Amino acid sequence: LSIESRKKLKKITSYIMERPNVGFDVWAYKEGIEFIGWNEINQFDELILMNFTMYGPLYHFKEMFDKMNEKDVDFWGITKHHGFPFDPFGTIPCGYIPEHIQSSFLCIRSNMHRSKEFHDYWDKMGDINSYGEAVGKHEAIFTITFEQYGFISDVYVHTDDLKQDTHYPLMIEPLELIKNRRCPVFKRTSFSNEYYEFLNCCLGEPTVEMYEYIKKNFDYDLNMVWDNLLRVENMSDLKNRMHLN
Length: 245
Fold this sequence. Notes:
Layout: H1 3-10, H2 24-36, H3 38-41, E1 46-50, E2 54-55, H4 61-69, E3 75-77, E4 80-81, E5 100-101, E6 105-109, H5 110-113, H6 116-123, H7 131-148, E7 153-155, H8 169-172, H9 174-181, E8 186-187, H10 195-199, H11 206-217, H12 223-232, H13 235-241
Parallel strand pairs: 3-7
Antiparallel strand pairs: 1-6, 2-8, 3-6, 4-5
Helix pairs in contact: 9-11
């Protein structure tokens, strides 16, 4: 962290942890939990695990939390991935990608984050050496693992009606989710991941349509998005996704 960044963070928290960028978000979550400690975490009503793969919020998070507070669930997230009938990574114990809450935002309520099952899950988490292992050892199995323990889950943005169109609504139909379902976030990989994956599902229009809608309808500073993308992403990926011909 730069000195200026550290000053900004100190205004809102005394818990500032710097670590090597290893183990993907899974080990960042694990080491963050260890840094704070179970005794401290157990004092809170909810534990939020959130990574850097989203931009937002477009709608105030209070709206989302107010709605989810009405639901009698043990853990929840913003969006769902509807799964694959196979395992493209060769890392998932069940041999396929089950339907799951996307790990970019998980809210764990106290009865679950105080449980032995939850503590054991993180205490026994093995090394994560690749994106495929991050999916296979955590993201793809987290929801089904804890549902099998008897915990109840839900998502803020329901997309079951879109299953016939795509397994990944937040990536392929972001305009629908933002415009009609008040999804407060959008994915940074909408601007940069493999273009052929995009064209397998659509004509390449989702990111441009989403971007133009946000630009016209929200008081959201998209310069923040470009400041980040231009610093860390490949120009050719941005050119393709945004059709900058």
